[in-house]
Design goal:
Strand order of the largest sheet: 6-5-4-1-2-3-12
CATH architecture of the largest domain: 3-Layer(aba) Sandwich
Number of helices: 17
Radius of gyration: 25 Å
Helix content: 25-40%
Order of helices and strands: EHEHEHEHHEHHHEHHEEHHHHEHEEHHE
Strand content: 5-15%
CATH topology of the largest domain: Rossmann fold
CATH superfamily of the largest domain: Crotonobetainyl-coa:carnitine coa-transferase, domain 1
Shape: elongated
Number of domains: 2
Structural class: alpha/beta
């Protein structure tokens, strides 16, 4: 492999020591692994919690875990034992990045705080993915996705629409924070590569979710004094929803001046054409409930196929509502190769959802199937310079776990 060969991704040659578990951290490091980084997933002897969700074909290899942990190698160490921690620091010495998702005090107690890691590797990019920023009064609170949806204001948005707060039916805050971790690490790696050295990063869930929620919903409250209440009206309209058609549900979204004129003519609602409430985007935003109500009234008059033919013909944004199980059969997703059939060495055939990003200089690939617990312990410790004798001692003492050889 040439010095500047990035055929496996732009992060080829970057090594990440990953102490994360569950969703937030593993999603972040999967993004980085998909970009070509060598991600060393360091797990406890019991393994990442997501390994154990049912259903699964074999112990410790749940689909949830497999989806989050491709393109990683697994090393299992008991970091509460001095010899396990020493082995970890051997890995740290040769790494570019160190990521954890513990509360910072817990990381310090375990011996993996920034000062301890930096002592071993001064150039390390050290990233703590935490629930709450370390300088605030919530710093030591436990954080899960539901907690952050509640505390960030995201759960309250549905109350503006339907009367009661509710959680988005996905681990939204885990995933947006995972993306924030990935781009924070990339920024720090860029600085590191330009001679800027290592540094400590903190990526807190609450602050990430608050910034995310207020992109559009700060709006009138941006100003001092506020020019209105928080919230962007179009997004909070109770009529903003998929509309029932003659045979299913559709997103029908006229947006531009021309879109709405075409929609009014198609539906025979010429009375709307000259109405001053609907002549410009700014005017329509003030009266969006009436327009969405109109779409709701008209949608049942045509089938999904008829709406798609009309909307696509005049460039009105539209899309049928897909169930999750419909996605693999979608013509567009098939054409772009979003779903890939793979065969895991122990788990057999499975479906992989590729990275959505396309790099012109490299192709997405699953270089490593999601590893079994401790599958790569010996291999990675050897690479770090640990002797075979010392590896044997770590495994025999229970300070390290090595998975059995694949049959």
């Amino acid at each position: 492999m040439g010095k500047n060969d990035f055929s496996r991704g732009p992060l080829q040659g970057v090594r990440i020591v990953d102490l994360t578990s569950v969703v937030l951290g593993p999603y972040a490091t999967r993004i980085l692994g998909d970009m070509g980084a060598d991600v060393i997933k360091v797990e406890t002897p019991s393994g990442d919690q997501t390994r154990h969700y049912r259903p699964m074909r074999s112990d410790g290899m749940a689909g949830y875990y497999m989806n989050l942990n491709r393109n990683k190698r697994s090393v299992s160490l008991d970091l509460k034992r001095p010899e396990g921690l020493r082995a970890l620091m051997k890995l740290v010495a040769g790494a570019n990045v160190f990521v954890h998702n513990m509360r910072q005090q817990a990381a310090d107690r375990l011996g993996v705080g920034y000062a301890a890691v930096r002592e071993v590797n001064p150039e390390i990019v050290y990233c703590g993915a935490v629930g709450f920023g370390s300088t605030g009064p919530y710093a030591d609170k436990a954080a899960y996705d539901d907690v952050i949806q509640a505390g960030s204001g995201l759960a309250s948005l549905s109350a503006r629409v339907q009367g009661d707060p509710s959680y988005a039916p996905t681990v939204l805050c885990d995933k947006i924070t995972g993306q924030a971790v990935a781009y924070a690490v990339l920024g720090a790696l860029h600085q590191q590569a330009r001679g800027g050295g290592g540094q400590a990063l903190e990526v807190p869930m609450l602050e990430t979710a608050v910034e995310f929620a207020l992109v559009e919903h700060l709006h009138a409250a941006t100003f001092e004094p506020p020019l209105g209440e928080h919230g962007f009206g179009r997004v909070l309209s109770r009529y903003r929803k998929p509309f029932r058609t003659a045979d299913s549900f559709m997103c029908i979204l006229p947006y531009s001046d021309r879109n709405w004129q075409d929609f009014f003519r198609f539906t025979g609602r010429d009375d709307f054409l000259g109405d001053p409430r609907f002549t410009s985007l700014a005017d329509r935003a003030q009266h969006i409930d009436r327009l969405y109500a109109l779409v709701e009234e008209e949608a049942p008059h045509h089938t999904n196929a008829e709406w798609i033919a009309f909307c696509d013909g005049v460039s009105i944004p539209c899309m049928p509502v897909h169930a999750l199980e419909d996605l693999a059969g979608d013509a567009h997703l098939q054409a772009v190769g979003m779903f890939q059939a793979k065969v895991h060495p122990t788990e057999g055939p499975y479906r992989s959802v590729r990275s959505p990003i396309t790099f012109g200089g490299s192709k997405f690939e699953v270089r490593h199937h999601a590893p079994r617990l401790g599958e790569n312990t010996r291999e990675v410790l050897r690479e770090a310079g640990v002797s075979e004798k010392d590896i044997d001692a770590l495994v025999s003492s229970g300070s390290a776990v090595q998975a059995a050889e694949t049959p």
